[in-house]
Write a structure and sequence with these properties.
Helices cover 39% and strands 14% of the residues. It has a single domain (3-252), classed as 3-Layer(aba) Sandwich (Rossmann fold). 49% of the residues are buried. α1 packs across α11. The chain has a seven-stranded mixed sheet, sandwiched between helices. The chain has 253 residues and is an alpha/beta fold. The protein binds adenosine-5'-diphosphate and magnesium ion. Magnesium ion binds at residues 16-17, 40, 44.
């Protein structure tokens, strides 16, 4: 049975999509069968892995709103062992359209359960909000990975996210655990980064991944080529650290 990991933080630009795509691709690279699930209407994970939005007939919207089977929406990618449930801008309507529907919080969970035995890992890229799409992702998941950018106010807003995680644990998914906090975009040339690492470790203690993601220009270039870093530039520092993260995730079980 596959392990489902939601990559969540309601702040934008903290590295959710970069982590979803590259953790997913690195898990696939080390031989795991992986499904990337794009739950952000911006569809950055979809385009970042090389799927043309124009070629997407069905997307996550059809699963969440129209009860279409996940099997009919899954697409393979150019990366071996890596499939994706894509998102298009159509998904932007789902947050509102789901509100009056039955079992609106558990739709993703039910859809993924039907394909869970075909994958070792499913990685869900969440939108930058704590609305119904993120709730669906957390409800479907075994674990949540929280990317935190190494900058001033790194911890700001995290209490809201943790509160949402607690509410989901209480009412929708008692099995959800905080898999870990991932420090991202560390600029090793500044002292600020070191201070933020200390601050986050003080708060989250052993929940912080040993792997820390530095700022790496190759990581920011890769999406415009529709490739994960392990394909775009396998010898880059970015590829190295996301491979380390994938191994850490596997060891964590
Ligand atoms: P989110 O999904 O949380 O909004 P993204 O993963 O899209 O965040 O990252 C925001 C921006 O920062 C993107 O342009 C991305 O390419 C860039 N980025 C993310 N991680 C890194 C990194 N480690 N080094 C350099 N650029 C990064
Ligand atoms: Mg994103």
């Amino acid at each position: 049975m596959g392990k489902i990991i939601a990559i969540a933080n309601q702040k934008g630009g903290v590295g959710k999509t970069t982590t979803s795509v590259n953790l997913g691709a690195c898990l696939a690279y080390i031989g795991k069968r992986v499904l990337l699930v794009d739950v952000d209407p911006q569809g950055n994970a979809t385009s970042g892995i090389g799927i043309e939005k124009a070629d997407v007939a069905h997307c996550i919207y059809d699963i969440l709103v129209d009860d279409v089977d996940a099997k009919g929406v899954i697409k393979s990618t150019a990366v071996e062992n890596l499939d994706i449930i894509p998102a298009t801008i159509q998904l932007a309507g789902a947050e509102i359209e789901l509100v009056p529907t039955i079992s609106r919080e558990v739709r993703l969970k039910r859809a993924l359960e039907a394909v869970k035995d075909q994958y070792d890992y499913m990685v869900i890229d969440c939108p930058p909000s704590l609305g119904l799409l993120t709730i669906n992702a957390l409800t479907a998941s075994d674990a949540v990975l929280i990317p935190v950018q190494c900058e001033y106010y790194a911890l700001e807003g995290l209490s809201q996210l943790l509160n949402t995680v607690r509410l989901v644990q209480k009412h929708l998914n008692t099995d959800l655990t905080i898999e870990g906090v991932l420090l991202t975009m560390l600029d090793a040339r500044t002292n600020l980064g070191i201070q933020v690492i200390d601050e986050v470790k003080k708060y989250f203690q052993d929940k912080v991944y040993k792997t820390i993601i530095p700022r790496n220009i190759r990581l920011s270039e890769a999406p415009s080529h529709g490739q994960p870093i392990i394909i775009y530039d396998p010898r880059s520092r970015g590829a190295e650290v996301y491979l380390d993260l994938a191994k850490e995730v596997v060891v964590n079980g």
